[in-house]
Specification:
Layout lengths: L16 H9 L2 E6 L5 E6 L2 H6 L6 E2 L42 H4 L4 H13 L4 H4 L1
Length: 132
C-alpha cells in the first residue's frame, strides 16, 4: 500500500498568532525581512536603534530555541510542545516510520513527499533516513 504522511507537530514560526503574541507581550517584534525571502524574524526591542548605536542585536527566524539568550527577554522560548502517541494503539497500529526532523526538512518537504521518499527507499533496499 501507499504510505500516508501525518504531521504530528507544528513548527514554531514567529508569525504564528500565539508565538507573535508572546513575543510582542515581552517587548519583542516580528518582522518579515525582504533580504531573507520575506521570512518572519523575531527581533528584540528597538532593533534599528540598537543597530544604529553600534550594537549587534540578535534576530532569529524561529520563536523557540535553546540558545540565543539575548532574545529570551523578548519572548524567545525554549519550552517545547509535546505530543504523546501510543505506538501500536488503534490510531497508530500501521505506522511504519516516524520521522523526527526540524524545519530544515519540513521547510522543503511535505509529509506526503517524505512518505513517498521513504517508501521508494524501502523498495530499492536503501536506508530510509538517507533518502531524506
Amino acid at each position: 500500500g501507499v504510505l500516508v504522511g501525518e504531521q504530528l507537530t507544528v513548527d514554531h514560526k514567529p508569525d504564528l498568532d500565539t508565538e507573535r503574541q508572546r513575543i510582542e507581550q515581552c517587548g519583542g517584534m516580528v518582522e518579515r525581512l525582504q533580504n531573507h525571502g520575506n521570512k518572519p524574524f523575531i527581533r528584540g526591542g528597538d532593533f534599528m536603534m540598537r543597530k544604529a548605536l553600534g550594537e549587534q542585536p540578535m534576530q532569529l527566524q524561529y520563536s523557540r530555541a535553546f540558545g540565543a539568550k539575548d532574545l529570551k527577554i523578548f519572548g524567545l522560548s525554549c519550552v517545547p510542545d509535546v505530543k504523546i502517541i501510543r505506538m501500536g494503539s488503534a490510531a497508530y497500529k500501521n505506522v511504519r516510520f516516524l520521522v523526527l526532523a526540524s524545519d530544515g526538512l519540513w521547510d522543503v518537504l511535505s509529509t506526503a513527499e517524505a512518505a513517498r521518499k521513504l517508501q521508494e527507499a524501502v523498495a530499492k533496499r536503501e536506508h530510509p533516513a538517507e533518502c531524506l
